[in-house]
């Protein structure tokens, strides 16, 4: 059983990821600025006697608190941390700027860092424009999409040697359309994936399946991949 820290465990992506990892028997530490044991109980859907029962541990804290993160990593010795947070600078800080320190810590402790981004930085076609550059978005949304794209470039420019991966879910991924767990998905690289009907989508639960699979069987190192049906 591995110890895995999930930042943003009260959110849509983070909650699904924490639950999937716990269901697989991992020890999961869910971190959020507002997390409580009661919130974890609502995240954890495990039935009595299942591997995930009481497996998600609540830790109030912020990824922007360098001292908190270092202490947590040093005390708990996780094999991986997953960052599933909004990239909106107005929500508490520039997440991309925080990656340099996180990656140095990750290299120091030989742990993987998984970052859940968005579909905006994916290319519409091979060699084509980014998805975000083809959309008409309100300015308040576009800022967050561009911040996620910038964060990916921070990771790509990193020279620490830390083992990171960045995941861009399908374009239709999100809380308004949560979907169900099928246990199936497709993987891609930097190009947006769509099904035969032109729909780019993956459920919250199946994104979590892909993340858990990647953590258990590492296949992507210092690169971005996308997940869709």
Automatic annotation (TrEMBL):
Gene3D superfamilies: NAD(P)-binding Rossmann-like Domain (3.40.50.720)
NAD-dependent epimerase/dehydratase domain location: 4-84
Domain of life, source organism: Bacteria
Pfam families reported in the protein's UniProt record: Epimerase
InterPro entries linked: Epimerase_deHydtase, NAD(P)-bd_dom_sf, Polyketide_Oxido-like
Gene Ontology molecular function: oxidoreductase activity, acting on the CH-NH group of donors, NAD or NADP as acceptor
PANTHER family, per database record: FLAVIN REDUCTASE (NADPH)
Name used for this protein in its record: NAD-dependent epimerase/dehydratase domain-containing protein
Source organism: Rhodococcus opacus
């Amino acid at each position: 059983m591995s110890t895995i820290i999930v930042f943003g465990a009260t959110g849509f992506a983070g909650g699904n990821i924490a639950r999937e990892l716990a269901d697989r028997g991992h020890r999961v530490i869910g971190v959020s600025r507002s997390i409580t044991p009661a919130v974890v109980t609502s995240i954890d859907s495990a039935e009595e006697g299942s591997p995930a029962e009481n497996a998600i541990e609540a830790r109030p804290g912020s990824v922007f608190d360098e001292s908190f993160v270092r202490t947590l990593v040093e005390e708990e010795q996780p094999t991986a941390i997953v960052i599933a947070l909004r990239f909106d600078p107005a929500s508490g800080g520039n997440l991309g700027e925080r990656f340099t320190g996180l990656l140095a810590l990750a290299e120091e402790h030989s742990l993987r860092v998984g970052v859940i981004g968005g579909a905006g930085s994916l290319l519409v076609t091979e060699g084509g424009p980014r998805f975000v550059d083809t959309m008409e978005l309100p300015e308040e949304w576009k800022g967050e999409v561009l911040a996620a794209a910038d964060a990916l470039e921070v990771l790509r420019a990193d020279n620490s040697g830390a083992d990171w991966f960045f995941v861009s879910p399908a374009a239709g991924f999100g809380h308004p359309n949560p979907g169900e767990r099928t246990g199936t998905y497709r993987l891609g690289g930097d190009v947006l994936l769509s099904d035969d009907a032109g729909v780019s989508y993956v459920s919250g639960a199946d994104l979590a399946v892909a993340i858990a699979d990647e953590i258990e069987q590492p296949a992507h190192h210092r690169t971005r991949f996308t997940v869709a049906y």
